Amino acid sequence: MIVETEGYLSAIDPAAHGYKRPTPRTRIMYGPQGYAYIYFSYGMHYLLNISTEPEGTGAAVLIRAIQPTVGLDLIRQRRGDAMPLRDLARGPGRVCAALGLSLAENGLPLTGDALWLEDKPGLAPEAVVATSTRIGINVGMDLEWRYYLAGCSYVSGRQNGKPT
């Protein structure tokens, strides 16, 4: 279950990859929507984004954290048995490590056999989604485009946002 995300819009967001123009690496962000944009960050982590806008508009949502609900044995094989459950996919680099994602999945549709999203109801009626500024950037810091499940221990960063 996705519990934390951040949005990036290239046309107005200096923190977005492909700010103001597409590059060969960021072509996935520029549509069509619903595709995996995976890149290698800081020479050590893969990060998963999802293209979100029609072709020609550079935008994506970074998956910052998930709460594993299925495939826990496989995730533990990838991440280790000693790691606490809440830390297996708490942070964008850990998400890709837990799911076994790399550049090989970059550009895949999220409606296929390898990658997909499902809408599974199940959040408690009192669940609150909060918003805050994004984490780990030094431009576009005023944009409150980080969304997370308030009070969830699987969220990767601070929880000082406000309810949406």
Could you explain how this protein is built, in words?
With 164 residues, the protein is mainly beta. It has a domain at 2-111: 3-methyladenine DNA Glycosylase, Chain A (Roll). The chain is built from two helices and seven strands, in the order ββββααβββ. Strands 2-3-4-1-6-5-7 form a seven-stranded antiparallel beta sheet. The two termini are 19 Å apart. The model has no long low-confidence stretch (mean pLDDT 93).
Short recap of the structure:
The protein is mainly beta and 164 residues long.
Write the layout of secondary structure elements.
Elements: E1 2-9, E2 36-41, E3 45-51, E4 59-66, H1 72-79, H2 92-99, E5 129-132, E6 146-149, E7 162-163
Antiparallel strand pairs: 1-4, 1-6, 2-3, 3-4, 5-6, 5-7
Helix pairs in contact: 1-2
Summary tags:
7-stranded antiparallel β-sheet, 2 helices, mainly beta, 164 residues, 3-methyladenine DNA Glycosylase, Chain A
Note the beta-strand portion.
15-25%
Number of strands: 7
Query: Helix count, per DSSP?
Result: 2
Q: Tell me the span between the first and last alpha carbons.
A: 19 Å
Helix share, percent: under 10%
CATH fold field value of the domain at 2-111: 3-methyladenine DNA Glycosylase, Chain A
Strand and helix order: EEEEHHEEE
CATH architecture of the domain at 2-111: Roll
